[in-house]
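subagent[fold] <- orchestrator: predict structure for attached chain, return tokens only, no commentary.
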Amino acid sequence: MDCLFCSIVRGEIPSYGIYEDEYLFVMLDKFPKCLGHVLILPKIHSADIFDLGEEESKRLFPMAQRIAKAMTQIMDFDGINVIQNNGPVAGQTVNHFHLHLVPRFKDDNMNITYTQQNPEADEFDNIKHKFIRVLKD
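subagent[fold] -> orchestrator:
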């Protein structure tokens, strides 16, 4: 397997690592949206959220919160985006699960946009009942 992030985790490619433990590796994004953009990676290769291990899943958001709180002590920012993409159509560019923490600044010209849809009530009911049925199992 030739995975960029696995090579970084193994130390084969230099990175700006800021933290690691048994399950996660945290680094500054080498191509940031702005300085301070952080990536949280599971050490075990997982292509996306569908492939992510249970132990890694349990640790991701506590780590994201820890990093975000550290950011507040280091940087003077106005907000933060927590972003996780799955699949090329969703913007995933490296086939290894990773969570972005992007500090945001007033007038930073970074936009995350989408066109809001306006589904009918019966469409909401239909999808709602499908979720309920699947989640019962």
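orchestrator: received. Logging for downstream: The first strand starts at residue 16 and ends at 20. Helices lie at 4-9, 54-74, 121-136.
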